[in-house]
Amino acid sequence: MTQIDHSKLKAKPHEEDFAGKYENNGFIARTLVENYFKSVNKLLQKTSNIHNAHEIGAGEGRSTSILSKMVNNISASEFVEELVAKAKVMNPSVAIFQESVYELKYEKGSVDLIFLLEVLEHLDYPEKALQEIKRVSKKYLILGVPREPLWCFLNMCRFKYLKDFGNTPGHLNHWSKKKIIKLVEREYGKVIAVESPIPWTILLAVKDE
Question: Can you tell me the mean pLDDT for 23-27?
Fold first, then answer.
């Protein structure tokens, strides 16, 4: 288990708006989110013998409510305590609890499938997070991150975050498809499938033995 002093991290999850994409009622935004989860489901169909799953970084629980319809026996966690309470209200039948991605509460090799969706770009230590996920994972990881430089370019096209060249506040890391695959294969295991819904990269990896 990785010991991290959270008080010294650059990441400020208490200050970030993780629900924004779900609350945008515009047609384009809704379509992008729908395509995102269609891609997640496509990857999920490539797995087998999933007896339990765990989502890390559930936020207010909106993604949890979608994932719980795709896979049985799912739990979820979130670092920000006040978001945990909101996620529980939205998902009363799902076990949701507070934890840090660097200090996961599950035992070694006890979770068949881990979801890590739009979390890694917010982390000070993505490598350490993947190492800790590998510890508790039994086999699969489905991970999604913004695809760069497309993400920043599209932000600038809509005149967002111009002074930061399109970088969304809170994003500490930026990966092209090639670079995120390389990172996951170095720290977790073999990437066996990739989906590219605009503007994300979502991949399915199998843990190294």
Answer: 63
Q: What's 180's domain CATH number?
A: 3.40.50.150
For the chain, how many structural domains are there in total?
A: 1
In a domain, 209, yes or no: no
Domain containing 149: what range? 19-204
Residue pLDDT, tens place only, 144-203 = 999 888 777 677 777 687 787 777 778 888 999 999 999 999 999 999 999 999 999 999
**Residue whose entry in the numeric block shows the structure tokens 């909101």:** 86
